[in-house]
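Side project, low priority. Logging it here so it doesn't get lost.
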Amino acid sequence: MKQATVIFQQGDHRWTLIARDPDKHGYVIDTNEYLISSGNDNLLTDPGGSEIFPAVFSAISAVADPLSIRSLFASHQDPDIISSLGLWLDFNPQLHCYISRLWATFIPHFGGDDQTLIPIPDEGMSFRHGQLELQAVPAHYLHSSGNMQLYDSAARILFSGDVGAALLPEEDGGLFVTEFDQHIRHAEGFHRRWMGSTEAKLDWCERAAKLNPDMMCPQHGAVYQGSDVMRFINWFAALPVGSGIKR
């Protein structure tokens, strides 16, 4: 089962990381989910695929009432991001899901309808979650043509979706990046192939640097914190991307 670990807490404002399932099948990619708590209200980012729904649900149940999850946030349309939507709605039909407007008519193939989904405009938007003001931040073409990240300015945490992702070997299960130079080797191939636009990459780097996050939380791999956040942004800015075409 996945484990739930609190990575930030200030009063009743909390971020909990749901990660590292030792029983996960090797043929599915490992994912991180983040539960953002404000009082009794919870929001779950990129809740994952249907095959990991039981593991995510069990881990959350150990730390919070799943019925306290008011909304989901999906960074983009992939199955490892949001194919569990129908199962979450079976549990709580009142849930809403924030998603780029680009995917608002595609995601219902996983579940839900136009009452479930809250489309985010291309330029992003802010919305209330409990006592918090969260910001949906554009990251288009960084893996997906309609892509959104989520920034919590009170905690200074950026949920960065696939940006910052690393495909870690089984023996490297740490939740936080501790040796940047070693860690980034596991991120390089992923970013070279899955990030398709240099223009979009540089736009994101400028945008992320201005946010000045203290933690950057990707959907795969380990969490960057402190000076490693800016080290990642600088590394990404210099990395050639979109190199999957072979002639």
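Brief comment: The chain has a mean pLDDT of 95.
Revisit when time allows.
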